[in-house]
Amino acid sequence: MNNSGVGLSDPTFRRYTPSQATQYAANRSSYPAELYDLVIRFHAESNGHFNTIVDVGCGPGNATRDLAPHFERAVGIDPGLEMIQTAQRLGGVTGSDSPIDFQVATAEDCAKIQNVENGVDLLVSAMAAHWFQMEDFWASAAKIVKPGGTVALWTCASLYCHPSMPHAAEVQKALFHLERDVLKPYELPPNQLSHDLYDDLVLPWQVDPPVTAFPMTEYRRIEKDRNGTLSDGKDFFVRARATSLQELGNSIGTASMVTRWREAHPEEAGTEMDCVNVTLAEVKKALGHDWDGELRLGHSAVVLLFKRR
Q1: What Pfam families does this protein map onto (predicted)?
Q2: Choice among 39-48, 88-97, 283-292 with the minimum mean pLDDT
Q3: How much is the CA Rg of the chain, to the nearest whole Å?
């Protein structure tokens, strides 16, 4: 079992322009407090400390900024120069009012990043681990994470319409058409890995030789709302931020597959024939002309939690 790495198979985010990175930061939904609470609670209840957090594959630093107030020091790393420069412009502070340190670095070399000589208490990766070369990542994580520290990896998949929405089935049909038909030719293996909620993500005991620093006995997998079925019967664990069609379009536009579709269709990108705009028109038609409420959408999600021996 092998996952392609950032350096080999991320042809999109690493070469974002300044404008693309800024748009990504503005329109990519953050994660709910419940997800962060789950990670922080696991870390605290398993005797983790709160000195240093590192966010690997941080992009423009949205999750880094959300988690930094829990820690004395925070570092965000990403291989994309424009992503990091955008993160630096947006800034952010830790619980000790220290600025977040954003650095250009890969997940596979996270053990070599600067200013973490005393190790890392919590290492997180938000919707990025599917781009990592996992064998190298686990080896580096074992070097940088302190004994008793935590690694938390999570991802979200697909876009689902809440069953309480009017004409939910027709709205879902439009969303699935974009994902499963229009964008399918622009899907890469890491996208599928995320879509499958990390079912096949290489775990530390699956590499050769196994990385024994993260024992399987301490591992937790927490899955929510798979295939759009609400785990609690009420709402999505990871809710989409979009409350209007325009916000929905902006959010969908941050997907790597959409970026690749637009690169392949430069004459249609941004026009009414743009794949996102066509989908929005289909969703609007499904909702009906008299619809004036909020969009209730969400994702399936998984959180993987590991303890450093």
Answers
A1: Methyltransf_11
A2: 283-292
A3: 19
Domain total in the chain: 1
- CATH code for position 107: 3.40.50.150
* DSSP letter for each residue of 242-253: --SHHHHHHHHT
According to DSSP, the residues that pair with 120 across neighbouring strands are: 145
Q: Which two tokens stand for residue 308?
A: 């450093």
**d(C-alpha 54, C-alpha 56), whole Å:** 6
DSSP per-residue codes, 142-176? HHHEEEEEEEEEEEEEEEEE-TTSTTHHHHHHHHH
240-260 residue pLDDT tens: 876 789 999 999 999 999 999
Angle subtended at Cα 134 by Cα 131 and Cα 157, rounded to the nearest 5 degrees = 40
Instruction: Work out the number of other CB atoms within 10 angstroms of the CB of residue 65.
Output: 22
The answer to whether residue 79 sits within a structural domain is yes
Q: Across-strand partners of 68?
A: none
Helix (H, G, I), strand (E, B) or coil at 124: strand
- Is there a domain that residue 254 lies in? no
Range of the domain at 124: 13-159+189-240+299-308
**Each residue's pLDDT tens digit, 135-179:** 999 999 999 999 999 999 999 999 999 999 999 999 999 999 999
Strands 101-104 and 120-126 come out as unpaired
| 77 three-state secondary structure | strand
Q: Is the torsion defined by CA of 110, 116, 118, 123 positive or negative?
A: negative
The amino acid at 173: K
Residue 119 lies in a domain: yes
pTM: 0.93
Dihedral Cα 108, 113, 117, 123, nearest 10 deg: -60
Asked whether residue 155 is assigned to any structural domain, the reply reads: yes
115: exposed, middle or buried (Cβ count in 10 Å: 0-12, 13-18, 19+): exposed
